[in-house]
Write a structure and sequence with these properties.
- The chain has nine helices and 13 strands.
- Helix content is about 40%, strand content about 25%.
- The protein is an alpha/beta fold.
- It is globular.
- The longest helix is centred in the first third of the chain and has 27 residues, at about 5-30.
- Helix 2 packs across helix 8 (about 235-250).
- It folds into two domains: about 30-120 and about 225-260, D-Maltodextrin-Binding Protein, domain 2; about 120-220, 3-Layer(aba) Sandwich (D-Maltodextrin-Binding Protein, domain 2), CATH 3.40.190.10.
- The strands form four sheets. Strands 7, 8, 9, 10, 11, 12 and 13 form a seven-stranded mixed β-sheet that branches. The chain has a two-stranded parallel ribbon with strand order 1-5.
């Protein structure tokens, strides 16, 4: 028996290796290049919970359009939810190939290959409890509220580093998800939650907090979002993605998708 188990393990290993080689050969024969991605949690309208557990959203539509324009490319993994911090890590080390809709920051530039075409622009706003009475027209108005005016942000999101650069603001970027930050806001563990539109109202509805919090009217800042690729991705594949996005921009498809999802 002691000799049987090693032989069985070796046989299984050979079978698995053979299967992997067969799959790789099949992909090569079909001329398909797979780009590994994931659906980013709490990033509506980029990725939105759809019917029967599916994932829909603007980034899903962008990926499908790229596949249509460049038929040899195929995105896989976008039906699997993943925290943004994990997506960022996996793209940076080459475990994923692309992340749709990232803000280009100084910290991120060495880690990812950002394509130049803007996908869309987001507006950063404040979410407050429904009974909030402060009038906020600028970040200076937030500073004047004192050290108790804590700003909640999602860990790994670009808003945290942006606010740190502004200086003089009290920031809590420890929570990994929008849902957690909304509960912290309701519990009084922060004065405001900093997040972006479009898609924020839908998040409040899905989280069941729409009657307990409200979106403040002032747009605090704006930022473009881009397609970010792994630096380990083949340059030829990156060029095909870039070309497809450029075509979408020229045809007005990106603007059409923003209108579709900016509800």
């Amino acid at each position: 028996m002691s000799n049987v188990l090693p032989r069985l393990g070796c046989g299984i290993g050979v079978m698995l290796a053979g299967c992997c080689l067969a799959l790789a050969s099949s992909a090569m024969a079909s001329g398909i290049t797979v780009l590994r991605v994931a659906a980013q949690e709490g990033t509506e309208p980029k990725f939105v919970p759809g019917p029967q557990g599916s994932v829909i959203g603007m980034c899903i539509d962008i990926m499908r359009a790229i596949e249509r324009i460049a038929p040899g490319l195929r995105f896989e993994g976008h039906q699997q939810w993943m925290p943004l911090v994990r997506v960022l890590y996996e793209v940076s080390v080459g475990q994923q190939d692309a992340a749709c809709g990232l803000q280009r920051t100084v910290e991120r530039l060495p880690l990812y290959h950002f394509l130049d075409q803007e996908l869309f622009i987001v507006n950063y706003v404040l979410v407050a409890r429904a009974d909030e009475t402060a009038i906020i027209n600028s970040w200076e108005d937030v500073r004047k509220l004192g050290p108790q005016a804590v700003l909640l942000t999602n860990r790994g999101f670009a808003a945290t580093s942006f606010l740190e650069q502004l200086g003089g603001l009290q920031i809590d970027g420890s929570a990994a998800s929008t849902a957690v930050n909304l509960q912290k806001l309701i519990a009084g563990r922060g004065r405001f939650f900093v997040h972006r539109t479009p898609g924020l109202q839908a998040i409040l509805v899905h989280s069941g907090v729409a009657g307990k919090v409200r979106i403040m009217p002032t747009v605090m800042s704006r930022a473009p979002l881009y397609m970010a690729l792994s630096r380990q991705l083949d340059p030829g594949v990156a060029e095909r993605v870039r070309s497809a996005l450029d075509q979408m921009a020229r045809r007005g498809e990106l603007d059409q998708l923003l209108r579709k999802w900016d509800q």
